[in-house]
Amino acid sequence: MEGEMEMSMSASEDMEMGEDITPPLPPLAYSLHDAFLLSHCSSCFSPLPSPPLLPTNSLLYCSPRCSSSSLHVSTAELHLLQSRPSAIADTSDLRAALRLLQSLPAASRSLRAGRIAGLLTNRDKLLATTGDEEFVGRIREGAAAMAAARKMRDGDEAEAWGPDDVALEAALCLVLTNAVEVQDNTGRTLGIAVYGPSFCWINHSCSPNACYRISLPSPPACCAQARLRIVPCARHCREAQIESGVCSISELTKDEVCENSGPRIVVRSIKRIKKGEEVTVAYTDLLQPKAVRQSELWSKYQFICCCRRCNASPVTYVDHTLQEISAATLHSSSLRSNHKFYSDNAIRRLTDYVDDAITEYLSVGDPESCCKKLEDILSQGLLYKQLEGREVKSQPTFKLHPLHYLSLNAYTTLASAYRVRASDLVALSSEMDGHLLEALDLRRISAAYSLLLAGATHHLFHSESSLIASAANFWISAGESLLTLARSSVWSGFVKRGLPVANLSSLSKYICSKCSLMENFKAILHHRQPQNTDIEGISSEFLDCVTNITQKVWNFLIHGCQYLRVFKDPIDFSWLETMKYSGIGNVQPHLSSPAVDSYHGTEGSVSICEAHMYIFQFGVHCLQYGGYLASICYGRHSHLTDHTRSILDCEEC
Ligand SMILES: C[S@@+](CC[C@H](N)C(=O)[O-])C[C@H]1O[C@@H](n2cnc3c(N)ncnc32)[C@H](O)[C@@H]1O
After folding, report:
1. Residue nearest to atom 21 of ligand 1 (CA)
2. How many angstroms separate the alpha carbon of residue 204 from the centre of ligand 1?
3. pLDDT score of 327
4. Do 277 and 339 belong to one domain?
5. Where do the SET domain residues begin and end (predicted)?
6. In sequence order, what are the residues at sequence separation of 6 or more whose Cβ sits closer than 8 angstroms to the Cβ of residue 411?
7. Which of 17, 29, 49, 198 would you call most buried, defined as having the most Cβ atoms within 10 angstroms of its Cβ?
8. What is the mean pLDDT of the segment spanning 162-186?
9. C-alpha 178 – ligand 1 centre gap (Å)
10. DSSP character for 157?
11. Ligand 1: which atom is nearest the Cα of residue 120?
12. What is the average pLDDT score of the chain?
């Protein structure tokens, strides 16, 4: 019976922050999302050297080796791809479930005590989901499609011991409950993978002490020497029950470190962990406020998180900030007394508005209209009349806090949309220097949004240390964005106008002599473990160095963007802690005509050449600091893309 037994994992020894807790674990099953079936290898997930021009219903491999390592693939998958009902948009969950059943010995395929091969299926809970008939319908329909595909494959010869419909449903629920996303090194989600109990028995916390990384392709051999440093714990049942109800725990975790194809997962500590302490990871985006996390965890896994962060009363500073909106001019007493009603309504509308603008950009790809919509809502908020459809005397306005999670989502999209606009412009008219300067404007603003995002996350990371992976990623993105800007051809527009720009041919000229970031960064690049994991020390070195540069370069980056002008500094948000946020001014964002001529020579500002040099230096610092944080949470192997290495000119390091 489901619910009798809860598994978790705890540390078998003391661990420092930034240590591997498991060796690279191979998946039990994995599958590409449908969108990548024609472009990526179904075994190692690498891009295919020569993708087929026409759709095909077979699975594709990059090499004979990958093709021969695909014995675990269920041939029913091909039938599923041919015959899937059109309502099933993506079959990766179903194919992973078919592969899982295929890969297990017959004895472990059946559903016992709500588990298959020791992994929780959650079937009873997921199917009992009240109020989400659509979700339940999708599980039933998916299991039916799996059954039909197996039948097409086996005909009358169907295996007598084959899984019944309940087991197929359970296998699908197991995938929904246990699978993790597999991303490539640009952050695209290529598919999913399900791992064995050593990973899948790790519970969730919104303030976790561990994180995981997935290696594509297999990690270097040195990683494989790491040991498994966690042990299973069973709650609400005696060990004997587990042994008889599922199978022996030691059996289940023993053979996971074996030669096998597919993306490997490694769990890593992001806090100091004591022997016996439960090890937890995040199942959801930690940069969301409590209500959003809880709703996501409930709809996907059917549990209510009771971690330290969720149980804090009053809510933690980070959660408060991520959900704060301001309601300016709530003068009338009826409006004041209904404040909660109006704010809840406003937040729903603001969420829909931001989500729609982002979804439209991702599907239709109109970056200009997306920038306008997002900057309008960030600057102006929602007027009461937009909420209620009627006017009142004093129009209240509901605005997102600049560190509200929707604002952070908007900054991510704005950084991307401005970058795309700049690239489109350069591609269209590389010869026209007017367009080059306009492209520079767009690229500056893209870099400014990246920087704002990194600074905002950094501020929150100071109060919630488990945000380390987000901080690392955003600092790396900001660094890449600034270095791409500094190295961009758009600066040639100035040279044509006779204005000098910096000579960036030698990185060493721009390396800071005041901080040890470069030393730490070199250690990461040269595959040595960073020596010093004293984040506070490194962090304050970084801030000391960049505070100066920020003052010199921020105005240049944001020139012409009215929304960004309200931020005096993208890194120092300390004013938020001391001042009740009351909304930023009503500004109308627009892009000025190419900003740089008017910027050049403005009193108190730096010259174009200096701005260019500072942008480069700033980018180097952001990348070094982000790289340092990433080395703690991902280890020294994985986080730097080839692109980052090349823009940093690593041979000089
Ligand atoms: C990947 S499994 C984790 C291992 C699981 N506890 C087990 O017994 O196999 C995910 C499931 O564990 C449970 N779970 C994970 N984290 C939890 C938490 N913080 N509180 C309550 N249940 C949790 C939920 O049932 C969830 O669907």
Report:
1. 303
2. 7
3. 66
4. no
5. 96-284
6. 449, 450, 452, 453, 456
7. 29
8. 90
9. 9
10. G
11. 9
12. 82
Q: Is residue 541 domain-resident?
A: yes
The C-alpha angle 399, 588, 597, rounded to 5 degrees, equals 135
Tell me the DSSP string of 186-201: TS-EEEEEEE-HHHHT
Which of 112, 204, 249 maximizes ligand 1 atoms within 8 Å of its Cβ, making it the mutation to test the pocket?
204
Domain presence at residue 14: yes
Residues 373, 267 share a domain: no
Residue range 128-167, pLDDT digits in tens: 866 688 889 999 999 999 999 988 887 765 555 556 788 8
ipTM value: 1.00
214 and 117 part of one domain = yes
- Do 271 and 160 have their domain in common? yes
Atom of ligand 1 nearest to the CA of 200: 1
Same domain assignment for residues 592 and 452: yes
The pTM of the full predicted model, rounded to 2 decimals, is 0.88
Distance, CA 203 to ligand 1 centroid (Å)? 5
Q: What is the pLDDT of residue 427?
A: 81
What's the confidence (pLDDT) of residue 582? 47
Distance between Cα 133 and ligand 1 center (Å): 23
Q: Is 550 helix (H, G, I), strand (E, B) or coil?
A: helix
Distance CA 69, CA 179 (A): 21
**Ligand 1: distance of its center to the CA of 491 in Å?**
53
Quick one: tokens of 456?
């905002």
Q: What is the pLDDT of residue 384?
A: 59
Number of domains in the chain: 2
Show the domain range for 114. Answer: 6-281
Return the best residue to mutate from 126, 181, 203 for the ligand 1 pocket (most ligand atoms within 8 A of CB).
Answer: 203
336 CB neighbour count, 10 Å cutoff: 12
Domain annotation covers residue 58 = yes
Note whether residue 305 is domain-resident. no
Same domain, 275 and 423: no
Does 355 lie in the same domain as 267?
A: no
